[in-house]
UniProtKB/TrEMBL annotation:
Organism expressing this protein natively: Myceligenerans pegani
Tagged with keyword ATP-binding: yes
Domain of life: Bacteria
Alphabetical list of NCBIfam families matching this protein: PRK00668.1 (NF001908)
All copies of domain Nucleoside diphosphate kinase-like, residue ranges: 12-149
Quaternary organization: Homotetramer.
SUPFAM superfamilies xrefs: Nucleoside diphosphate kinase, NDK
A GO term for molecular function: nucleoside diphosphate kinase activity
Enzyme Commission number(s) from the entry: 2.7.4.6
UniProt function note: Major role in the synthesis of nucleoside triphosphates other than ATP. The ATP gamma phosphate is transferred to the NDP beta phosphate via a ping-pong mechanism, using a phosphorylated active-site intermediate.
EC class: transferase
Name this polypeptide is given: Nucleoside diphosphate kinase
Cofactor: Mg(2+)
Active site, UniProt feature: H130 (pros-phosphohistidine intermediate)
């Protein structure tokens, strides 16, 4: 059979998506997964869990020492997180585009953060989702959240 336009290439890119506690709390997990699937990416693994300080310190190691680091870790422990491995060609930058800018006030309409997020006046930016920012980050983060994969 000839490949079709929608067929997956053999080497498939993966990214780590987190629906942060604000997204889970507000009942937006389904809407966020829907947008990932509607874009054409595949859900490879999904897990709802309470993140530990050790996991979050590793996950956010690049931000250690910044003023928002401790509030960020506290926020990420304020409720369950939905961890997702999404798969597809270009999914790492593609999900970052779907997510929109870090600050939900500045995120463009049409994006997850732009459509569904806002400034709540809290110490940390509550912006619904995390997405890996490079292939190296994706590999590292997937091994943290899904050690069995
Ligand atoms: P992301 O990759 O778009 O999620 O952004 P970063 O990796 O730069 O930051 C990680 C997370 O820390 C963000 O998603 C926000 O929740 C939070 N954050 C980032 N920058 C700031 C900031 O300047 N102030 C505050 N309060 N929180 C921030
Ligand atoms: Mg980041």
């Amino acid at each position: 059979n000839l490949p079709t336009e929608t067929a997956e290439a053999p080497v498939t890119e993966r990214t780590l998506v987190l629906v942060k506690p604000d997204g889970v709390r507000r009942g937006l997990s389904g809407e966020i997964l829907r947008r990932i699937e509607a874009k054409g990416y595949t859900l490879r693994a999904v897990r709802l869990l309470d993140a530990t300080p050790a996991l979050l310190h590793k996950h956010y190691a690049e931000h250690e020492g910044k003023p928002f680091f401790e509030p960020l870790v506290e926020f990420m422990m304020s409720g369950p997180v939905l961890a997702v491995v999404a798969e597809g060609e270009g999914v790492i930058p593609g999900f970052r585009s779907l997510a929109g800018a870090t600050n939900p006030t500045e995120a463009a309409p049409g994006t997850i953060r732009g459509d569904l997020g806002r400034d709540w006046g809290t110490a940390v930016v509550q912006n619904l989702v995390h997405g890996s920012d490079s292939p190296e980050s994706a590999t590292r983060e997937i091994s943290l959240w899904f050690p069995e994969l």
